[in-house]
Amino acid sequence: MSTEPLPFRRVEQALDLIRGVCMVVASIALVVLIVAFGWLVFGRYALNATPTWVEQLALLLICWIAFLGAAVGVRDDTHIGVLLFRDMAPMPVRKVLMIAVDVMLAAFGAVMLLAGLELAAFGWDTMLPMLDVPESIRTLAITSLGGLMLLFSGTCALLRILRFRSWTPDEFLNDDIKDA
Q1: How many structural domains is the chain composed of?
Q2: Residue 137's domain spans which residues?
Q3: C-alpha separations of 9 from 12, 13, 84, 136, 170 in Å
Q4: Which residue, 53, 80, 105, 149, shows the most beta carbons closer than 10 Å to its own?
């Protein structure tokens, strides 16, 4: 059983639940994408009538799959990063660098969220061709990634700050404070 305070565990569980929902939605979108392309191939070669809506649906689904996958990567702390200098730093500096990266990711997520909301509002009256849904359905994927980055990284930064004195070197070497 974890020695972590109950509120910390509850926050981690809630974030893991949101992460799981992201994975399920992205997985469903991937299955729909595969089925749609199967229909495209069948329609083109068996029926000799190519369904033109598949390409637009594919673009929409790929946006959602990519952005939800990126949000999961932020939660799992598997996003792109240069670890050489951080890993070479002494432990107190390493802790500060990890918090700084979380704060920068949260700030970037906030910018994506705000810009995505503006872009979604701008494109709401424009319809995607052949799907007859607002263009903003595609841009809401960007907005959701921004919100999820802000949530995941901001919460991680806050939890790391609250745990700052109790972290052990082993937890930092593994970059795995979620399971501490």
Answers
A1: 1
A2: 6-173
A3: 5, 6, 30, 36, 19
A4: 149
